[in-house]
Amino acid sequence: MISIKVPCSSANIGPGFDVVGLSLSIWLEVQVTIDTSITKSTTPLNCVITYEGDGADHVPLDADANLVTRTALYVLRCHDHRAFPPETRVHIINPIPLGRGLGSSGAAVVAGVMLGNVVGKLGLSKDRMLDFCLMIERHPDNVTAAMIGGFVGSYLRELDPVDMERKEIPLAEVLPEPAGGIDTGVKPPQPPQGIGHYIRFGWAKEIKAIAIIPNFEVSTASARAVLPQEYSKQDLIFNLQRLAVLTTALTRSPPNAELIFQAMQDKVHQPYRKTLIPGLPEILASVTPQSHPGLLGICLSGAGPTILALATHNFDHIAEEILARFSQEGIQCDWKVLEPAYEGATVAQI
Ligand SMILES: Nc1ncnc2c1ncn2[C@@H]1O[C@H](COP(=O)(O)OP(=O)(O)OP(=O)(O)O)[C@@H](O)[C@H]1O
Ligand SMILES: N[C@@H](CCO)C(=O)O
């Protein structure tokens, strides 16, 4: 059996909207077996899916509807494989909460690209696989962190006009709508080479991430829909100044809490997302390095609603304060202390 493991991730870390991501220690696992004794499968697209974990009651189990296998089919079809090899069994174990800002869709897309690469025996490098991920999830922060591992900064390369046209193809043409297991025969658009460029930053070993995960979902699409089309010069400079300091501040031991706390402030996405997350500004202001020693900084994780607090110690005390604030809004939360997942996405024979 082959096991594909992909970590969850927290995007933005305050000012780094669509730029930085941190992979963290909750892993989506996709277990794959191919039963070669079945040469003619009766299952649509030759793929049987089973699923356990978050979303088990509603995540689709049809190969052309499930995000993991649908992504794998995209990769396979770009390489002239019309379906999975008969008969592919895919067991998905997903502990990453869906729609909470911990990169569940990014992990599913990365796992899907790796699944296509494995079952199609395509031999793609991680960098080439990232191109496929970026045709589907078009902001690079979550997928790059999940694929590469650790604290990662990335940008989308400015492509020449022909490549740009390929990248800007509507998502529905990259991942065709489910066709009830029927192969529509359409060859999907190949990704241009090297869509995303990235760099892995260091990370001070004593910094952990407390994830406070509310019991409701905010879809990334709705959290992007509330953002403005234009920003003021002051707000962009505010974020750029902080991001430049933050990427190095988080590498230094011992971490400078004052510096990091200020460097994690943001004026590009968090202020606009307060309409979707009750009490967000108060929650982000509820803990400081002075009130809660050990705290380094606090932000919305990805598109939310999860709150990410970076800290060196005093995790319970910090989490309790944020849980109490959410509770005042009638919201219950789960919370976990997570560590960077340095390895990124892995494939192993087990
Ligand atoms: N393991 C999975 N299998 C199938 N579908 C998944 C899986 N993980 C995520 N998804 C799909 O992705 C959706 C969530 O994506 P969305 O981008 O809204 O949130 P997120 O990725 O959890 O958060 P963020 O992007 O803010 O970090 C789910 O509702 C589901 O449709
Ligand atoms: N940078 C993205 C991450 C969400 O996946 C956002 O905040 O919308």
UniProtKB/TrEMBL annotation:
Pfam families: GHMP_kinases_C, GHMP_kinases_N. Its EC number is 2.7.1.39. InterPro entries: GHMP_kinase_C_dom (IPR013750), GHMP_kinase_C_sf (IPR036554), GHMP_kinase_N_dom (IPR006204), GHMP_knse_ATP-bd_CS (IPR006203), Homoserine_kinase (IPR000870), Ribosomal_Su5_D2-typ_SF (IPR020568), Ribsml_uS5_D2-typ_fold_subgr (IPR014721). One of its GO terms (molecular function) is homoserine kinase activity. Residues 258-322 form the GHMP kinase C-terminal domain. Keywords: Amino-acid biosynthesis, ATP-binding, Kinase, Lipid biosynthesis, Lipid metabolism, Nucleotide-binding, Steroid biosynthesis, Steroid metabolism, Sterol biosynthesis, Sterol metabolism, Threonine biosynthesis, Transferase. Residues 66-150 form the GHMP kinase N-terminal domain. GO terms for biological process: sterol biosynthetic process; threonine biosynthetic process. Pathway: Amino-acid biosynthesis; L-threonine biosynthesis; L-threonine from L-aspartate: step 4/5. It is an enzyme of class 2 (transferase). It catalyses: L-homoserine + ATP = O-phospho-L-homoserine + ADP + H(+). Commits homoserine to the threonine biosynthesis pathway by catalyzing its O-phosphorylation. PANTHER family: HOMOSERINE KINASE, HOMOSERINE/4-DIPHOSPHOCYTIDYL-2-C-METHYL-D-ERYTHRITOL KINASE. Belongs to the GHMP kinase family. Homoserine kinase subfamily. This is Homoserine kinase. It comes from Terfezia boudieri ATCC MYA-4762.
